Amino acid sequence: MNPSVNPLIIDQSFEFVIMLFAGMTIMLFHDIYIRIRSRLKSGKTMAFIQDILFWLFAAILTSSFLYYCSYGRLSIHALIAFGAGAILWKKFICGTIS
To answer: How far, CA to CA in Å, does 42 sit from each of 4, 28, 30, 32, 39?
Structure first.
């Protein structure tokens, strides 16, 4: 007898992994953005505009990850995976690169 895995579990695992990488990707771009911004030393108004543009870019990128893995459905495990990816990036990878 060959036990099969429920397709729902496979879909949710796929979504979890994709959103984990989405959180890590956003944090990678955030670290790059912070380094560029610290070298430019722009004024408060320009920094505000740059922040808005960055977070718009991050929202579009996150939406495309979410659309790829679950056709745009937002779920609790997708949010947890995204947050876990961001935390994993900050805790383990961010310090080793700089």
So the answer is: 57, 21, 17, 16, 9
Q: What is the pLDDT of residues 11-68, one digit of tens each?
A: 888 999 999 999 999 999 999 898 888 888 878 888 899 999 999 999 999 999 899 8
Contact 58, 26 (CB under 8 A): yes
H-type helices in 1-98, by residue range? Answer: 7-40, 44-70, 76-88, 94-97
The C-alpha atoms of residue 78 and residue 73 are separated, in whole angstroms, by: 9
Three-class DSSP category at 34 = helix
| pLDDT one-digit tens code per residue, 5-16 | 888 888 888 999
14, 73 Cβ separation under 8 angstroms: no
